[in-house]
Amino acid sequence: MNSPTPCSRSWSISEGSLKRYVHFASESCIQELLSASDSNRFGNGNDGWKILTLDNGVEISKRRSGSLHTFRSRWLLKSVSPQQFITVANAIDAAKQWDGDLVEAKYIKDLEDNLSIIRLRFGENSKPLFRNREFIVYERRETMEDGTLVVAVASLPKEIAAGLHPKQNNAIRGLLLQSGWVVEKLEDDSCMVTYVVQLDPAGWVPKCFVNRLNTKLVMIIENLRTLAEACPTNGVTVSTQE
């Protein structure tokens, strides 16, 4: 007779409470993304960002606080409009770039037109960093008063995530502390894109991967740029923040 599987801790939460929590958490994430996009435009400053590479208009920076590593990729995309790039600036397309063995990408719940809960699951053929990892994330999309487009993506707390979608089979619940894009319109239908990601600090990310992340970020934005160039420029709408 098999022993019963111990239950992980989970919270039951009403849709109203979930919406209020995600609004609060995503607003904080949006402000962090905007701050990261504004800082250190003309060289190293005193805000903790350290430029790792700066080549052909591509800047890769890192900021560390204790065990937390936050990475920022900033790129001038010529002849790609913000409306084009925003179509591929989302949790699912980004997950496909991190690892090709994304076996499930499912919208669990739409809280509002611009606010969704998404499940991302990687399979057994993924690279070790993502093998059998599962993420329950929110995605919020906003247009700021100056026209800047922002997409915030981060994991829900594990207790709330377990209540919404219990972990299945041998999946390992991963944690994306903070990520997202800031897309600013420039002249000549071009845009400046800032992509920020903060990874799980609890021993999940090996040091060798942290040291190679700058190369990975360049590849991710380059691949997303290629996808964006194939997208039409019309028919894209993003919520406007009041």
Descriptors:
242 residues; alpha+beta; 10-stranded mixed sheet; 5 helices; 28% helix; globular
* Helix segment tally: 5
What is the terminal-to-terminal distance?
58 Å
Rounded average pLDDT: 81
- In percent, how helical is the residue content? 25-40%
Rounded radius of gyration (Å): 18 Å
Q: How is the biggest beta sheet arranged?
A: 10 strands, mixed
Amount of beta strand: 25-35%
Model regions low in confidence, pLDDT < 50 over at least 5 residues: 1-7
Shape: globular
Element order, helices and strands? Answer: HEEEHHEEEEHEEEH
Total number of strands: 10
Structural class: alpha+beta
What's the helix and strand layout?
Blueprint: H1 15-38, E1 50-55, E2 58-65, E3 68-77, H2 82-86, H3 91-98, E4 102-112, E5 115-122, E6 133-143, E7 149-155, H4 158-164, E8 172-173, E9 176-185, E10 191-199, H5 207-229
Parallel strand pairs: 6-8
Antiparallel strand pairs: 1-2, 2-3, 3-10, 4-5, 5-6, 6-7, 7-9, 9-10
